[in-house]
Write a structure and sequence with these properties.
By secondary structure, the chain is α/β, with parallel strands linked by helices. It has 9 helices and 6 strands, in the order ααββααβαβααββαα.
């Protein structure tokens, strides 16, 4: 399957009720040859309107965070979400909605074949890292599964609400940068 085929199929999805209220499917954005994949929980109002993940204030902060470690959504990362349609009132996606969308995310993984996955926030971290994951305890911890390094950081929206978490997130980013330099071949070309 190609990226275009996957995106077309995802755009036609009606596996859950989120499709009834969406303006746009928010499939993903960035380099489709990136070695680094960022995964959030789901689109918000701005993302639903524009059809692109992480826009608005949280997206601007994410761009700034990526720039600190030499990454850019237009150049060397791919960004997507667990669910591809906006939950009403920006609520957390329900388990059944996550389950309905997870195959789209798995297909994106298979096409991209990232070397590093960075989960943005507690929901993405819980889905991808699993177990008894807790963002407050586990952010910044690196783990490897099937040759892919995985970690999580606080969601940019959480950092906007609680700037006190920014210093530890900066430390997490610097550790992630070192790991990217260790395992990625072409990220900083």
């Amino acid at each position: 399957m190609t990226w275009e085929e996957l995106e077309n199929q995802c755009s036609a999805c009606h596996k859950c009720s989120l499709s009834d209220t969406r303006t746009n499917v928010v499939f993903g954005a960035g380099s489709r040859s990136a070695e680094v994949m960022l995964v959030g929980e789901g689109p918000g109002e701005n993302e639903d309107r524009q059809g692109e993940p992480f826009v608005g204030r949280a997206g601007k902060l994410l761009d700034d965070m990526l720039a600190i470690i030499g990454l850019s959504r237009g150049k060397n990362v791919y960004i997507c979400n667990i669910v591809k349609c906006r939950p009403p009132n920006n609520r957390d996606p329900l388990n059944m909605e996550q389950d309905a969308c997870i195959d789209w995310l798995r297909a994106q993984f298979r096409l991209l074949r990232p070397k590093i996955i960075i989960c943005l926030g507690r929901i993405a971290g819980g889905v991808i890292l699993g177990g008894d994951y807790k963002i407050t305890r586990d952010h910044g911890k690196l783990t490897e599964r099937d040759g892919v390094v995985m970690t999580s950081i606080y969601h940019p929206a959480a950092l906007l609400r609680d700037p006190g978490k920014r210093p530890e997130t900066f430390a997490d980013l610097k550790n992630i940068e070192a790991e990217i330099r260790r395992v990625c071949e072409r990220t900083y070309d």
